[in-house]
Sequence to fold (477 residues):
Amino acid sequence: MGGIFGLCSNNECVMDLFFGTDYHSHLGTRRGGMAVFDGEHYNRAIHNIENSPFRTKFEGDIAEMKGFAGIGCISDSNPQPIIIKSRIGTLAVVTVGRINNKQELAKQLIDEEGAYFTEMSGGGVNDTELVASLISRKDNVPDGIQYAQSKIDGSMTMLVLADGGIYAARDRYGRTPLSIGEKCGDEKGYCASLESSAYINLGYKACYSLGPGEVVFLTADSMTPVVKPRQQMKMCTFLWLYYGFPTSDYEGVNVEEMRYRCGQSMANQDVANKTAVEADYVAGVPDSGTPHAIGYANQSGIPFGRPLIKYTPTWPRSFIPKDQSLRNLIARMKLIPVERLIQNKKLLLVDDSIVRGTQLRGVMDELRSYGAKELHGRVACPPILYDCKYLNFTRTSKPNETISRQSIMKLEGTSTVSDSQVRQYTDCDSKKYRALVEEIRQRLNFDTLAYHSLSGMLDSVGIDKCKLCTYCWNGEE
Fold:
């Protein structure tokens, strides 16, 4: 995943660009980058941020960078921004998304257009450079953006610094959000941001949210429509459940409030299904499990507690490292137990989701070692059955690596499973679904385990369900 931010101002923009980009640090920990334009020249800085925060790496660049327009990114994949000089001018580009047909597109451009790619990442083509190359095939940036979007299989939201301003373009199905903020008063300007909360402290007020496939052109004084929004939307529900920052709004729905509603819905579901349990505390698995747990506690009347405290000053998000043992180590080291809230206690633990489950099993074992009397699990979404092919949100490094697929293979007695087999486990009222949940419960060492229903989760978002992507839960596009 990653985050993008850009702005145009009638004054020096570098500090706002620095902070606006930094406010996306929760979305990635590998690369950070900024590019600015001063009216004549582009200036760019890119740093590896795997071992230190974005802001510490770029403090020295702030004094060197000058400009009235700029774009920035936090990325878990390719170094960016990319700056290219093309027949339609110089372009600086940042992107967030996924290109499933990257190799085919690159080969086509090389074979048919004579293109070449100089930025290689892990032996492959840099996604953002590929996007920039596609844009430059057309006679102007707006046509180029539409061409790139039409060729990409996957999802790609982008900011293009060109023509003295910024083209802000949301992906064709609106899987990721893109919000526009306006600064008023003596200092004027417009910004574009994946997280709507990234510009609040910078003096911008939300003025617009792009629709699917929409493109607008920003300058310090104006926001001009360039490409009209498409009707069909399939926004990623995981942004509300887990990835999104609590203070952000997507499609008019605040992330934190959605998570409260999600917890309340799970509590109501337990009552309706007669699966409610007695517990001393409802606790969230930090961080994003916490607001779901607050909602559950408020609705159920069971006190909210924090038997696990996340040590936030130094530890990055645990899903980032590619090595599973390192992920497990980070997950264990960053959570510090409160023994007096664990020993001889009945705990109901709420998590936003379960992908592989190895880290959560480690948490359960640790809680048992501290004398927990009972451990009950509640998950804010249904079992994850399909790897995300649009944003990598729930994608694993190997096929069938999720705990859900591993459990299905055991139940089916096979070493692999087809999508048609998996689909039989999506109905929460079926025997196979109940067998799946029971198998996962045993693997994770819970006394009871329940997943939120798909309908309950979508109701918690509160917008038209047809506008939400549910692929990773039911395989439906």
